[in-house]
Design brief:
alpha/beta; six-stranded mixed sheet; 18% strand; globular; 217 residues; three-stranded parallel sheet
Length: 217
Amino acid sequence: MNHNQPPKGIPHDSGFSRNALVSHHHSDHFGAVPGLRERTGLPVYVSRAFPDDAFQPDGFLEDGQRIAGLTVLHTPGHASDHLCFARLDGVLFTGDHVMSWNSSIVSPPDGNMRDYCDQLQRLIDRDDRICLPGHGPVLQDPRPYIEQLLANRMRRETQILKHLLNTSDTVQNIAASVYKKSDLHIAMAAERNVVAHLQKLLSESRVAQEKGIWRVN
């Protein structure tokens, strides 16, 4: 799939929608948007934290703003500009913040594990009745699922700390230790997630790093 091409079959000025609200800047969510706007004249709105200065949106979105019957939630973590959109009837469009097929990658520097965990807790506290993810099927009664996503992150953090209590080490070795062998096909993503966890722990003064070697404080 070419994420940079707008869907075929949408005519110019089709009137099929009133606004395009972008969840975040990653290519599979934004890549086709400039072409879609050019083809249809559709107004495009992005987060105030949107990092691509080359694209000029029709407007910016901020946390708590109301637009098109939706409330904007700024949910950084997977991406610094990530947005979710809430309907008044308990339906939440979660983009990549909560996906029903897998957990989201959190890859620094734009990804931030501390923000991601904080925003998972925010959604748990909201207790929406339905989540519509950017990837995967609809989540009915999503709170237990989101609670498990957060618990899995905390479990991974505990594994990292346990490893570092035994030995100071590199990101690569930590990732190989805490991810199962069956997960090695996602080795690069695993390493990025480990970096995100380590940076969270560093911000909490629980670990330190020197010349690529991480240790507990």
